[in-house]
Amino acid sequence: MTVAPTYLKDLELQNGLVPTQAGEILYQVLPDIEEAFAQPSELVAKLWSRSAPILGGGQNSIRGELFELIIAIALVKFGLRPFYYQVKLALIPETDYDFVIWTRSGPVVISAKTSLRERIKQAALEAVALKMVHRRASSYVLTLDHIEAENANRKVMAGDLPALTAVIKADTFEFDELCQCLGQVEIIEGPTVALVAKSRAAVK
User: Fold this and answer.
1) CA distance 133 to 170
2) pLDDT value at position 190?
3) Which residues, in sequence order, are CB contacts of 195 under 8 Å at separation 6+?
4) Residues 41, 82: Cα–Cα separation, whole Å
5) What per-residue confidence (pLDDT) applies to 83?
6) Count of C-beta atoms within a 10 Å radius of residue 163
7) Which pLDDT score is estimated for 76?
8) Quick one: which of 113, 112, 160, 166 has its CA closest to 138?
9) Contact assessment for residue 99 and residue 112, using Cβ atoms and an 8 Å cutoff
10) Secondary structure of the chain: what % helix, strand, coil (to 5)?
11) Which of the four, 141, 184, 186, 203, has the lowest number of CB atoms within 10 Å?
């Protein structure tokens, strides 16, 4: 798992991650990372709107990574750390999670999706895989797609997407409420899992 640094200065995410095209766009719209934002949703809305003219139509992969980086900045600036970025979790094969925040109650997974129409099923399957290993886990999807977010939340409420906790519009008060809730629990570093609990002998 890759731990995001406490300070995303110049968007150079450490631990082997290098600036990308999405990062270069954010260089242009966020010259001072200490800029004041009243709420996480305000940060998301402003940085995304500033980036849009530079991004243009943009490739979906660049749009997705740009959104992820903006969410990472929001988590750092509002003190929700440590967190893990672009994560593979033990015992959950072939599944990548955008963000994982570990609490005393278990992991909180956040998937960042600029659009949902083709991605909500993927997020739901990832949430099911997570619940099979971590029964007390929570899974949230952050998006900028308001219409599809409402549709997805109706499915969550109806039990059609049972492993998802909620779909949240990242540029609204919903994201502020999520960050406020996370700020009220103890965030810890992810545990190191010993896959072999006991053995009579280890033959090498």
Assistant:
1) 27
2) 85
3) 90, 91
4) 20
5) 87
6) 18
7) 83
8) 166
9) yes
10) 40, 15, 45
11) 203
H-run or E-run covering 148: helix 146-158
- For the stretch 75-100, pLDDT in tens is 888 889 888 888 888 888 888 899 99
Q: Residue 71 corresponds to which amino acid?
A: I
Q: Which two tokens stand for residue 16?
A: 């082997």
CA 114 vs CA 90, 100, 137, 170, 202: distances in Å? 27, 18, 23, 9, 48
Structure tokens at 151: 């549709």
Give the chain's domains with CATH numbers: 9-187 (3.40.91.80)
End-to-end Cα separation, the chain, in angstroms: 27
Q: What's the CA gap between 128 and 150, in Å, rounded?
A: 21
Cα separation, 150 vs 166, whole angstroms: 10
Distance CA 5, CA 1 (A): 13
Q: Where are the extended beta strands (E) located within 52-175?
A: 84-87, 97-103, 106-113, 138-143, 166-169
The pTM score is 0.83
Beta strands 166-169; 138-143: pairing state: parallel
> How far is residue 70's CA from residue 23's CA, in Å, rounded to a whole number?
10
Of the candidates 65, 54, 7, 8, which has an alpha carbon nearest to the alpha carbon of residue 29?
54
Omega before residue 40 within 30° of 0, cis: no
| Alpha-carbon distances, residue 24 vs 56, 69, 120 (angstroms) | 14, 11, 28
